Amino acid sequence: MAEVRHTRSHAIAGVAMGAGAALAMAGTLFPVFRVSGGSVPPELWSALGLGLDDGAVSLAGSFRSYVVLTAVWAGVMGIALVLTRVKYVGPVWRVAALIGLSAAAFVAFVMWVLVLDPLSVVGRPTWFTADAPLLVSGLRGATLEAGLGLWLLTVGTCVGVLAALVPAFHTHRVVKTHNSSRGLEPGWYPAPNSRRRTRYWDGEKWTVGA
């Protein structure tokens, strides 16, 4: 006798979430932007959590570690989402992943603001107070262009966040069970191995519908 069993799978969301986290981590390995013009020395870039190397500016030090850790956290939550089979646990992993991804997304947002309007970032009175005047002066006349690292970080966080919002999908599979129902008269009976309360036995097999 064949039996239809229904399950919920978070595999698509989990795999996409892990892929987004991997892209975000890869973004820390490449320059987030390139700078031309201006006169900001390398030691002042470090005040922004960045490192300058031949015109290429990358995430550095604790800033890079922060992004990597949040991306790793989201990736682990993606793996947990793929493996989970317990009802109502999936949303917990999704929310936890969103927390990590939102932190990485904030970094990407700040980097884009820095590329598009650097003086609005370093000129804030509560940010980088000690070095703000030197940074503002050094960035005047500078041109910043987004690099591969920033694009990877942006795409990765977007993919991860969207994946966390993808709902679980229902699957069903046909399994063989023992033929203990042989001999039953056609009629409605308590459903064997099913979420449904009752199933109809037609004399040879259980019907799918309730």
UniProtKB/TrEMBL annotation:
Entries under InterPro entries matching the protein: DUF2510
Transmembrane segment boundaries: 12-33, 63-83, 95-115, 148-169
Residues annotated as signal peptide: none
Coiled coil region boundaries: none
Keyword terms of this UniProt record: Membrane, Transmembrane, Transmembrane helix
Domain DUF2510: 186-207
Cross-referenced Pfam families: DUF2510
Name under which the protein is recorded: DUF2510 domain-containing protein
